[in-house]
């Protein structure tokens, strides 16, 4: 589906027609994935030459191929299945590098981030933050493997309650050394300091 | 581009440049609609923007690709919103890949073709599926050996004999990062 067609289809859907919006999303997903899944199919069942070429193209497509590698792997066994999982991991890493470059650049920006209303406990005011704070927190969430997902809202709160100068020092320290400073929250949960 | 077009284009590619050009074309085509809707979400009239947002949030890796492509030109106050969604998508994929790799950590089959071409330094013992899975996990989560003192670096791991690699993999499965990754949605 082209961009113009997607915009036109969207304009024909009325506010609140959630099923139609979901159907449009499904159609875009299916159609947009088709060329990549065709390449994954050529890799899985083509000639040796097709496989080599398809792998080169898929590698260049990076983040767009994770889903196709995982889906293709589901229908395969043995070394082929293993290879699909490994390729999905490599595509993830390619995307991660791309994402981290953007986060690293955002860590230089002191621009304020507009508050997003908190769901649920509305009496609690959202803490103000800057792009560098948010980028640091996102990078920490993505890269620091020993901090489980459930602890990140607590880390976020603790970090954003710090004085601005201390946050700047934390961010600068991470960018210089690649090491994460322990926070009281993580120490209490038994997570050690250190890099990712 | 139809399935047949993709396959015939692939077969006619005779150079790395031609393959690169095919990748660019596939990427542009796959991201055409997602980019249009991401642009509408961040910069369109309110009602259309809200509808576009409902669609974009369902597009997974396509939304991530569109947002990465649009990132430098998106309105400033949308950059963090984009990054939040991109990181969420990445974490979702990481969970799924880790679940698959978890299964491979028990597979002692010899690897016939390395996916990680630079995984084993010259002279290392041959890698098995479990070894390669372990090495990929370490690239994906970048475990710091100084905070997990029992774990070796990737290079040191690849140089070990098979029984020692098996012990290392068992140690990893009991480590704090692995437990955090595999149980990360469960509160204690």
Describe this structure in words.
Chain A is mostly helical. Chain A contains 9 helices and 2 strands. In chain A, strands 1-2 form a two-stranded antiparallel sheet. The longest helix of chain A has 29 residues, at 78-106. Chain B is an all-alpha fold. Chain B has 2 domains: 3-92, no CATH class; 105-182, no CATH class. Helix content of chain B is 66%, strand content 0%. At the A-B interface, helix 1, helix 2, helix 3, helix 4 and helix 5 of A face helix 1, helix 2, helix 3, helix 4 and helix 5 of B.
Largest interface, Cβ cutoff 8 Å: A-B, 86 and 87 residues
How are the strands of the largest sheet of chain A arranged? 1-2
The percentage of residues in β strands of chain A lies in under 5%
Mean pLDDT value of chain B: 88
What would you call the quaternary organization?
Answer: heterodimer
Low-confidence stretches of chain B: none
H/E element sequence of chain A: HHHHHEEHHHH
Estimated structural class of chain A: mainly alpha
- Tell me the total number of β-strands of chain A: 2
Number of domains of chain B: 2
**Relative strand content of chain B:** under 5%
Specify Rg of chain B, calculated over alpha carbons. Answer: 21 Å
Helix amount of chain B: 55-70%
Number of domains of chain A: 2
N-to-C terminal Cα separation of chain A, in Å? 40 Å
Shape category of chain A:
extended
- The run of helices and strands of chain B is HHHHHHHHH
Derived from helix and strand composition plus strand pairing, the structural class of chain B reads: mainly alpha
Question: Main β-sheet of chain A, in a few words?
Answer: 2 strands, antiparallel
Low-pLDDT sequence parts of chain A = none
DSSP summary: helix tally of chain A: 9
Features:
heterodimer; A: 196 residues; mainly alpha; 2 domains; two-stranded antiparallel ribbon; 9 helices; B: 188 residues; 66% helix; 0% strand; globular
């Amino acid at each position: 589906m082209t961009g113009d067609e997607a915009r036109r289809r969207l304009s024909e859907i009325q506010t609140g027609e959630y099923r139609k919006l979901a159907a449009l999303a499904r159609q875009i997903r299916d159609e947009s994935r088709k060329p990549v899944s065709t390449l994954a199919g050529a890799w899985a069942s083509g000639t040796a030459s097709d496989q080599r070429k398809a792998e080169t193209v898929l590698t260049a497509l990076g983040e767009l191929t994770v889903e196709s590698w995982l889906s293709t792997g589901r229908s395969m066994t043995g070394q082929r299945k293993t290879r699909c999982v490994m390729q999905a991991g490599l595509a993830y890493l390619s995307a991660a590098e791309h994402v981290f470059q953007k986060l690293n650049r955002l860590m230089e920006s002191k621009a304020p981030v507009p508050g997003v209303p908190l769901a649920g406990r509305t009496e609690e005011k959202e803490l103000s933050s800057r792009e560098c704070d948010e980028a640091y927190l996102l990078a920490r969430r993505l890269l620091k493997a020993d901090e489980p997902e459930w602890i990140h809202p607590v880390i976020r709160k603790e970090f954003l309650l710090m004085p601005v100068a201390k946050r700047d020092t934390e961010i600068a320290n991470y960018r210089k050394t690649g090491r994460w400073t322990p926070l009281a929250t993580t120490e209490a949960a038994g997570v050690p300091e250190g890099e990712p | 581009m139809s399935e047949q077009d993709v396959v015939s284009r692939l077969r006619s590619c005779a150079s790395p440049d031609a393959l690169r050009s095919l990748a660019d074309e596939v990427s542009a085509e796959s991201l055409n609609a997602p980019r249009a809707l991401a642009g509408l979400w961040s910069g369109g009239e309110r009602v259309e923007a809200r509808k576009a947002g409902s669609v974009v949030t369902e597009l997974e890796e396509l939304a991530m690709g569109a947002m990465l492509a649009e990132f430098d030109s998106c309105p400033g106050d949308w950059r963090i919103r984009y990054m939040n969604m991109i990181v969420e998508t990445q974490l979702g994929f990481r969970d799924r890949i880790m679940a698959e790799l978890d299964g491979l950590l028990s597979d002692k089959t010899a690897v016939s073709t390395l996916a990680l071409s630079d995984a084993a330094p010259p002279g290392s013992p041959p890698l098995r599926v479990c070894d390669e899975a372990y090495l990929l996990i370490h690239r994906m989560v970048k475990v710091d050996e100084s905070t997990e003192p029992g774990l070796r670096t990737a290079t040191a791991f690849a140089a070990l004999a098979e029984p020692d690699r098996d012990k290392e993999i068992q140690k990893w499965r009991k480590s704090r990062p692995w437990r955090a990754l595999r149980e990360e949605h469960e509160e204690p």
